[in-house]
Amino acid sequence: xxxxxxxxxxxxxxxxxxxxxxxxxxxxxxxxxxxxxxxxxxxxxxxxxxxxxxxxxxxxxxxxxxxxxxxxxxxxxxxxxxxxxxxxxxxxxxxxxxxxxxxxxxxxxxxxxxxxxxxxxxxxxxxxxxxxxxxxxxxxxxxxxxxxxxxxxxxxxxxxxxxxxxxxxxxxxxxxxxxxxxxxxxxxxxxxxxxxxxxxxxxxxxxxxxxxxxxxxxxxxxxxxxxxxxxxxxxxxxxxxxxxxxxxxxxxxxxxxxxxxxxxxxxxxxxxxxxxxxxxxxxxxxxxxxxxxxxxxxxxxxxxx
Length: 305
Description:
Mean pLDDT: 87
Structural class: mainly beta
């Protein structure tokens, strides 16, 4: 049995990626409507920076619970990934490339997200063994079609949700336990339910999502995801929250799949905001042309050094 990697200090935007880009906002109006809360949350994600460069590890394993603690039941599969994200207004282009292990180096994904619901997001993956780019299609009934490098994060989990595709309900205002870089603390939060519109529901694996949003900073603290049968299937948690370049940013993001009993963890190694990212590295050429990719990425990597 192998223990899960412990938090270093207990945010796909993708991507964000990842993941989830968070900025500081002071004060909050208690009378905000559910849609206003969603719009403020979305504004913090989209308007706090113009670009993001991040490097992180992605680990996945089957888990079992012993004495109330989830532990890996197998050796985790671990990858080191570089991720670039750039805003074009409210639209987003991002790419993620595997650096390690060596046998997977060169596998890469490209993702285009659009703010308007009339435009479908697009994602592509390049597998060096096949030597070609493949379009990734996410559907309701396939667990593999939209997986992010074989993890329990779907591409849908890393995309920025478009508020116009959801109906919102404020379930409660509550103080919840979270973990910042300085240690555990209690934070005031909204529990906001996102229910997809019929059009969105046809493209999503989820029938609803409940997000706990910090009432003062408007950042994600915890999330529960339900399938179309109303069953809670996944949980997303963040920890090691710290204030970096005017952004609240989690050192760790964990996605637990309650059905498969698998867990995936993103651990941030480096990240910088608002550095120049050439448009050329956010095209399909960056997937297939290794010398082109390395030439541009070597320039990008200087921001981390």
